[in-house]
Write a structure and sequence with these properties.
297 residues, alpha+beta, Phosphorylase Kinase, domain 1, 2 domains, 7 strands, protein serine/threonine kinase activity, AGC-kinase_C
Amino acid sequence: MLASTPTNSQQVAIKVIVKKPQMANRQSILREARVLRVAAGHPYLCHMHAAFQTQNYAFIAMEFASGGSLKDLLKKEHHLKTRQVIFYSAEMVCGLQYLHSRGIIHCDLKPDNILISSEGHIKIADFGLAVEHVFGHDTTCGYRGTPKYMAPEVLADQRYNAAVDWWAFGIILCQMATGWYPFDDKHGDAALRHSILENRAKVPAWTPSKLVILLRKLLRKKACNRYGVKGNIRQCLFFDSIDWETLENGRLPPPFQLEAMQQLAENNEGCQMNNDSVPTGVNIIEGFSYQCPSWQE
């Protein structure tokens, strides 16, 4: 849902979360808000402006990415030019490394959750399934994510770490560069699971050799050998044109222009956000409501 602030008409995206009976999703709502506060420290992660609530709903106001999602872009273009793939994937690398350095695993990385700003930069979004406090060789467990982007260790119900995000990144990178999904997703869930667990990733014959090497390292079945957790991914040949320091600071301009996709749904037009007082009651989640400093001016 889109909304605007009454003071300066700034457009924001509103995520609406239904509070489940007996507040069964209280912890997941709080976790997403916490991760979004951490994300505010990096240019390639979606930023939260405010969080507020009623008795039955939780609302998170985030920056509006008018370029749409990577899924939208791939649906339109099928696959991207090499310079776009390098630029977007490098920004994703920066964003993921920032999250992982703070003990956060995204756990649901996919094109739907990669947004594009009006300036043409990546914004990793949707931290509803994220896991916190997983550092170094620590592991977690639980069936999280979207099956097509799940790492083998998740599908096999094994413990896992940040390597699951690098697997998903490899899948997305392949789709960006080739328009192909590298495993069997045409014959049902069982065939998909078997393909991910047992088969080698397949890419078109015309895929650039530098990219093939990177994909092979990202899509290794053994998590401990996977690029991202083993080796310095920034030093791979595919990224040899990237000035990482400039990119990390958000100063590297996109080598292309995007058409902003600013189509407001009729039922969202005119929706405004007001700074109402924090509600109280039995269904109110303590510690959830928040306003970033710039909204308090």
